[in-house]
From TrEMBL:
Family under the similarity heading: Belongs to the CinA family.
InterPro entries: CinA, CinA-like_C, CinA_C, CinA_KH, Competence-induced_CinA, MoaB/Mog-like_dom_sf, MoaB/Mog_dom
Identification of the protein by name: Putative competence-damage inducible protein
CDD domains: cinA
PANTHER family: NICOTINAMIDE-NUCLEOTIDE AMIDOHYDROLASE PNCC (PTHR13939), NMN AMIDOHYDROLASE-LIKE PROTEIN YFAY (PTHR13939:SF0)
Organism, as annotated: Sedimentibacter hydroxybenzoicus DSM 7310
Encoding gene (name): cinA
Gene3D superfamilies per record: 3.30.70.2860, CinA-like, MoaB/Mog-like domain
Taxonomic lineage from the root: Bacteria, Bacillati, Bacillota, Tissierellia, Sedimentibacter
Residue ranges of domain MoaB/Mog in the record: 4-175
Length: 415
């Protein structure tokens, strides 16, 4: 079956709110092998909303809509759905009690215009919304002689997501007998174009499983996806493809993680081997520490993080020699080494990792241009330094520095 996602809200078009709903719904539908071929965003305009519904029902079996279930006159999503299925809007006592109870919980009077939230297309399945006043609904019927399903969900993610998980997905599962399962392979030290070229023959011949590359800051991720009657069968189908990719890219450069994050593997190694770590950051400004402490239990090995942005901080906090800074500059291999060593000694850890660079947009020179970053790992008396020359916006350069630092820690531990 094919699905179209229709998200309603002028705030989405203006960029005031990021449309996370479409992403969330797409991921959930992929898990039950329902394909999404179109995502549409439309503002709070009745004429345009009706037009989008018409287009969506022409090209999809299922239309999932978020937003437009509120109490105001421009919240017409339910009315439009009823119109397309050729049914009347009818009063629902359960929804009336739901809204009434919600306002009682808020200790507020029931506004008259909230009565709009008690009417639904006749014959629809009403979904109780425990996190807001707007109940959702599912409508199944025929449009122009073809079986269609319309799903209306509230716009706020905290309301939409539980309803999608607990009500919509279980309902839609009956229409899909297949399972979709995917694994993410991280590839480091090889650019996106070069990486794709290395496996182009596999991509051109792919059917099931499929291989989809996409670049992220400092890495390339390949998602390997299989569709079969069970997750176990999907895993069996993915295994030889995954092994072939790792063989071509090299074990040092390619590995599988659940989320596609470099720190998945790095934190697991640190905790499994009980290797303690401290971080000294200049240009990355705390990104490495932040990504490490996202993992439960990391306090076992992560001891301290230092953001030593100025030269004075590097000297006083990390014991970087003044002479080193004067001779080589803050952005140098020598300073990166002393920062990593200083962090490890001050925190008493096995590993010290550092970043120092020019994130821009200003401050670069011909000798040291914007995007130049040095990353260093001090471990067991040895130093591993990586010189990066990145392009892009300030935040992109910082993200790449943090990713490279976490990746260098992994390589040092595994070797």
């Amino acid at each position: 079956m094919e699905c179209e996602i229709l998200c309603i809200g002028t705030e989405l078009l203006h960029g005031d709110i990021v449309n996370t709903n479409a992403q969330y719904i797409s991921k959930k539908l992929a898990e039950i092998a329902i394909d999404v071929h179109y995502q549409t965003v439309v503002g709070d305009n009745p004429k345009r909303i009706k037009n989008c519904f018409g287009i969506a029902f022409q090209r999809a079996d299922i239309v999932i809509c978020t937003g437009g279930l509120g109490p105001t006159q421009d919240d017409i999503t339910k009315d439009v759905l009823a119109e397309y299925f050729g049914v009347e809007m009818v009063y629902d006592e359960g929804s009336y009690q739901h809204v009434k109870n919600m306002y009682s919980r808020f200790r507020k009077d029931f506004p008259k215009n909230n009565m709009r939230q008690t009417y639904f297309p006749e014959g629809s399945i009403i979904l109780n919304n425990p996190n807001g006043t707007a109940n959702a609904c599912i409508m199944k019927g025929e449009i122009d002689g073809k079986s269609k399903i319309g799903v209306l969900l509230p716009g706020p993610p905290k309301e939409m997501e539980p309803l999608m998980d607990n009500e919509v997905i279980p309902y839609l599962k009956q229409f899909s007998k297949m399972t979709v399962y995917g694994e993410k392979l991280i590839v480091m030290n090889i650019g996106e174009s070069a990486a794709e070229e290395m496996i182009l023959d596999l991509i051109e011949k792919q059917t099931n499983p499929t291989i989809a590359p996409y670049a992220s800051a400092g890495k390339v991720i390949f998602r390997i996806t299989a569709k079969a009657e069970s997750e176990e069968r999907c895993i069996d189908m993915i295994k030889p493809v995954k092994e072939e990719l790792i063989k071509r890219f090299g074990k040092d450069n390619a590995y599988v993680t659940e989320t596609g994050k470099v720190e998945d593997r790095t934190t697991r190694l640190l905790m499994e081997k009980n290797i303690t770590i401290s971080v000294a950051e200049s240009c990355s400004g705390g990104l490495i520490s932040s990504r490490l402490i996202s993992y439960p239990g990391i306090s076992k090995v992560f001891k301290e993080g230092f953001v030593a942005y100025s030269n004075e901080a590097k000297i006083h906090t990390l014991n970087v020699k003044k002479g080193t800074l004067e001779k080589y500059g803050a952005v140098s291999e020598e300073t990166a080494k002393e920062m990593a060593y200083g962090a490890a000694k001050r925190a008493g850890t096995d590993i010290g990792v550092s970043t120092t660079g020019i994130a821009g947009p200003d401050g670069g020179t011909e000798e040291k241009p914007v995007g130049l970053v040095y990353v260093c790992v001090y471990y067991k008396g040895d130093y591993k330094v990586k010189r990066l020359q990145s392009t892009g916006a300030r935040d992109t350069i910082r993200e790449r520095a943090a990713t490279s630092a976490l990746e260098l820690v992994r390589r040092c531990i595994e070797k």
